[in-house]
Design goal:
The complex is a heterodimer of chains A (435) and B (293).
Chain A (H helix, E strand, L loop, with lengths): L1 H19 L3 E7 L3 H17 L3 E7 L3 H13 L6 E5 L3 H6 L4 E2 L1 H7 L11 H4 L12 E6 L1 E6 H7 L7 H14 L3 E5 L2 H12 L6 H4 L14 H16 L9 H9 L3 E7 L3 H6 L6 E4 L17 E8 L4 H15 L1 H11 L6 H9 L2 H4 L5 H6 L15 H16 L5 H22 L2
Parallel strand pairs in A: 1-2, 1-3, 7-8
Antiparallel strand pairs in A: 3-10, 4-10, 5-10, 6-8, 6-9
Chain B lengths: L9 H28 L2 E3 L6 E3 L3 H8 L1 H34 L4 H9 L6 H11 L6 H8 L10 H29 L3 H10 L3 H31 L1 H7 L11 H11 L3 H29 L4
Antiparallel strand pairs in B: 1-2
Helix pairs in contact in B: 1-12, 2-12, 3-7, 3-9, 5-7, 5-10, 7-9, 8-9, 11-12
The chains are: A alpha/beta (435), B mainly alpha (293).
Chain lengths: 435, 293
């Protein structure tokens, strides 16, 4: 009896305490596993500790694709999280569904948070923006494909990191092969050898201003001579033993580099954190993605990859305010610098970049700066980004066809024709869903 | 003979209602929804949808890729069913003859049954790891440059192998109990008539096992078509790429990964029709000719 009284009294006190500190709780669904997930948790914990009004709970939902699917299913059931992380390939889907999200620019301004799109570094500014340049998604883990190399392997072969693909195939690769290495591997053919191939060479990727001007009639421009020549060269490198493809999986291609068998690996600037924490038997460094001098003599910046955070619609004003407060915390220079150092993803604001420079971070780890430098290279009319619906499926088509090219099942010519046909069918289909 | 029956009309109906309700809610309703959404193209978030009639179906029929996946599914199903059944039968016949330590032997053979498909797939990924997988090394030692996730045929081989490995124990249990149900008198009579063990197997044991065999045939076909999903998903590591996949996995890839609800609904309706055909085949042809004792 006594026991019961005490417990109920305690419960009453606890309830009062709850009303006294009515924290607004928001949830954040993300796709950051492993070490990245721990860093996400640290950021959330720091935010919760920094004030008493709001509490954010990060929830890991699996891969990028799984997180997007889970978020969409939850939205349809009316149980969407406040914040959802959506990757580059899913941007068209979520930005197309206008009433599903609150544009981050509106969210911040409505809740009294200062916002100036020019605070963000140029490479990340417009990728998740609409055609008018209004920021819809908050760039979060932003990366770009860069070229990592094994320093000792380069020294042994007596070469330096190639600036152009011409240099790679005539100088670097033969020397590396003679030194006993497979010269090149890469981890994501659609991202590195297609999307960023277009932006690096300032080639249009789709009609309708790379798809930004609407879904109606948008056609992919992937079936062009420059990229076909590139893939023809890749198959020749493969024959010559300069290049090896280990499958569509990301880590299957990264592992041979880590094991010291492959000298140059094209990966994400966001891989830097993971690589530095590993006990590699060699020193690694990084530099810009090479370009074809035959295509352009003025290589441009690359697209950001990675993902951004979307504020989901359908929550009350208090929760939206909490989301805005979290975004404000997230974009603070200190938070961005911490995230940048821990993970290797680029800082998204100029202030954070300046802070890293002032702190001497890039003197200690020069390779960590490559991603942001590459994103800050001169822009061209085709480097803002791309916006294509059902892009996850289009990437799957590319992966399938590229796999067939590299296993000799099909020709470069036939492959790109197939990608063009299937991608355009998907784009037309997506356009129909948007009515 | 007097047939037992209900005295009122309503009691049997009342007793059937819960079951019918469950079937209606969990089968007919979703099935009807799938048919309906296969006629539309839908925005993933559910804001807009356009009626497109049979477009989703004609898209499938004209897609050479879908036909390729269909063909692979057929070959995959035949291989997995054939090898799972024949290996299990061989093991069961041999286990049936073992007298000493029979129980231990049988338990060991059944063990794998407890392994979940994704775990089986994961074990496959480890065994066929590109740089240090024991089975990869074995293949290399006989001059086969095995590459899981790169070469289409190699990946398909690994998928078939793991699927068979996972299914053999189930078949083994059924075959063994089927063998043990064969009357001793029949076997002994056979022993007197014919000295050849092989002839005895094909003339006596095999026909008497037929009911078990046909039941397992249906079970194994559905297993290869549907239950291998977990194995395929883990073995392609979430990236379809140029890897082989079955029709069910394609539904998942297009619908849940690619967010194309109309297209993947059409695919699942196609699968529904396939299962319907299989059921009709089972009832009409098989059940009529096989006599269960």
């Amino acid at each position: 009896m006594n026991q019961f009284k005490i417990t109920s009294a305690a419960a009453a006190v606890a309830m009062m305490a709850n009303t006294a500190f009515a924290e607004v709780e928001v949830t954040w669904w993300h796709a950051m596993g492993g070490a990245l997930g721990e860093t996400v948790n640290t950021i959330a914990k720091d935010f919760n500790a920094s004030q008493d009004d709001y509490k954010i709970t990060p929830v890991f939902k699996g891969t990028y694709e799984e997180t997007l699917t889970a978020g969409i299913a939850a939205f349809r059931a009316g149980e969407q999280p406040n914040i959802m992380q959506v990757f580059d390939a899913g941007a068209a889907t979520v930005i197309g569904a206008k009433s599903a999200t609150i544009p981050v620019q509106d969210l911040l301004i409505d809740n009294g948070v200062a916002f100036d799109i020019n605070d963000y570094i140029s490479g990340v500014r417009y990728f998740y923006a609409d055609a008018d340049g209004k920021m819809i998604g908050m760039p979060f883990n932003s990366s770009s494909p860069i070229m990592y190399f094994n320093v000792q392997a380069m020294e042994k072969a007596g070469v330096t990191a190639p600036k152009t693909w011409e240099e790679f195939q005539t100088v670097t690769a033969p020397a590396l092969k003679a030194a006993g290495y497979t010269a090149l591997a890469q981890s994501h053919l659609p991202w590195i050898f297609t999307e960023n191939f277009m932006s690096r060479h300032n080639l249009p990727f789709a009609t309708n201003n790379n798809g930004y001007d609407g879904t109606e009639g948008t056609k992919i421009l992937v079936n062009n001579d420059a990229i076909k020549a590139h893939f023809t060269a890749v198959t020749e490198w493969q024959k010559d033993g300069f290049f090896e493809w280990f499958g569509t999986g990301w880590s299957d291609n990264q592992t041979p580099f880590e094991e010291g068998n492959v000298a140059i690996w094209l990966g994400s600037s966001g891989s830097f954190g993971g690589l530095s924490k590993k006990d590699l038997s060699f020193d690694f460094s990084a530099t810009y993605l090479p370009y074809w001098e035959a295509v352009t003599t003025e290589p441009k910046q690359t697209f950001i990859g990675g993902a951004s955070l979307f504020a989901m619609a359908g929550h009350d004003a208090d929760e939206n305010k909490a989301t805005a407060a979290f975004f404000e915390f997230l974009t603070k220079a200190e938070t961005q610098y911490f995230w940048h150092q821990e993970t290797g993803y680029v800082p998204i604001t100029k202030a954070a970049y300046d802070m890293a420079k002032a702190d001497g971070y890039y003197d200690r780890a020069p390779a960590a700066e490559v991603g942001i430098q590459q994103l800050s290279l001169p822009a061209g009319e085709n480097t803002k980004g791309y916006r294509m619906g059902f892009y996850v499926q289009i990437r799957d088509v590319m992966n399938r066809e590229y796999g067939r090219i590299l296993t000799g099942e099909t020709t470069v010519e036939g492959s790109f024709a197939a990608i063009e046909t299937e991608a355009n069918a998907l784009l037309a289909k997506f356009s129909k869903t948007q009515k | 003979m007097k047939r037992a029956g209900f005295t009122t009309r309503w009691l049997p109906i009342l007793l059937l209602v819960p079951q019918l309700l469950i079937i209606a809610v969990f089968f007919y309703w979703p099935a009807a929804q799938a048919v309906q959404s296969s006629l539309y193209l839908q925005d993933p978030f559910g804001f807009g949808s356009t009626y497109v009639g049979m477009d989703n179906y004609t898209d499938l029929a004209s897609s050479s890729e879908y036909l390729k996946v269909g063909k692979f599914t057929l070959v995959f199903t035949i291989l997995v069913t054939f090898f799972s059944l024949s290996l299990a039968l061989l093991l069961a016949v041999k286990a049936d003859g073992v007298i000493r330590g029979a129980k231990t032997y049988r338990t060991l053979l059944m063990w794998v049954y407890a392994v979940a498909p994704p775990v089986a797939g994961f074990i496959g990924v480890l065994m066929f790891n590109q740089s240090w997988g024991p089975l990869t090394e074995l293949a290399r030692s006989i001059g086969w440059d095995f590459k899981l996730g790169v070469n289409f045929n190699d990946t398909a081989t690994a998928m078939v192998l793991v699927s068979v490995w996972k299914q053999v124990p189930v078949n083994f249990i059924f075959f063994l109990s089927g063998l043990q149900a064969i009357p001793k008198s029949v076997r002994e009579a056979g022993l007197i008539d014919n000295g050849s063990a092989t002839r005895r197997f094909w003339d006596i044991t095999f026909p008497l096992l037929a009911p078990t065999g046909f039941f397992l045939l249906i079970i194994n076909i559905t297993y290869s078509l549907f239950d291998t999903f977990g194995i395929i998903d883990t073995m392609v590591k979430g990236e379809p790429g140029n890897n082989p996949m079955t029709l069910v996995y394609k539904v998942y890839v297009d619908g849940f990964r690619g967010n194309d609800l109309g297209g993947s609904s059409a695919q699942s309706v196609v699968l529904m029709v396939l299962v319907l055909a299989l059921t009709v085949f089972q009832f009409r042809l098989v059940e009529r000719r096989i006599h269960y004792t």
